[in-house]
Design goal:
about 290 residues, alpha/beta, Rossmann fold, 9-stranded mixed β-sheet, 10 helices, about 35% helix, about 20% strand
Length: about 290
Amino acid sequence: MKLNIQTLPLIAALLFGSFTVNSESPESINDSYRLDKGMAQCHTTTQAFAALGNDPSFLDEHKKPTKRLYQGVGEMITYKVPDGKDANAFTIKSKKPTNDYLFVIHEWFGLNAYVKNESAKLAERFAEMNVIALDLYDGKVADNSEDASKYMQSVQTERALAIINAAQSFVGNDANIFTVGWCFGGGWSLQSAIEMEDQAKVYGMPEKEMARLKTLNCDVLAIFAEQDKWISPEIATEFDNAMATLDNELVLKSYDADHGFANPSNPDYNEEAASDAYKRMFDFIQARR
């Protein structure tokens, strides 16, 4: 099997990557091994970010989003997960048959209209790619910071990895996969790349464990916000230094913007920075397709 995975992370940082999975087919990989491999390290990073939900200042930073509707193309689907509980996803299929897929992972409010709108924007830009927005909240969507905090902290590492691995199996052996995510989803975008042994990431907390980063097999585009108090410039520098010890190319860009600057429903939305970040993302993906 050849699995090409590109990651585009948006954190107050936006991370993008590209990579190629190993030659083993999903059938040849023991499911428990795939879930256990690196789970403790993944759990450490993702749970550290989720713990920010207990920080009142972090909740205050995520102001109530403006109400948005989605009335475009696409549909909600379900797919099988080995743990017995089906996963949800929003998908926009390419008009022409293709093995190129873009996995989108939502920010902390969940798979809402904003994420669907962004998925549609990506599908329009990459007309010959299938876009699938994964749902790590299992159907829960928040419209306020208090609920978003609860949902983010309730995500179990084993379940999230099972959803991601099952999505990889769902698209098939010949898929070329790119990943992108925001905030909560940015961190999980990178974890997706590591888990699938390809490339990935977007706007979120970078992996800090070197043992796990060394299993990353892709280039990464990382975009950060200099005013972010949590995914801070210091964290961006740490990630830059860690990636410098690996063979993967890291393209890092920081903006004079705040956390969530790329989200139009965020009162702190920075249109100029968001527009430039998306252009860099589009160019990064196109160069690696």
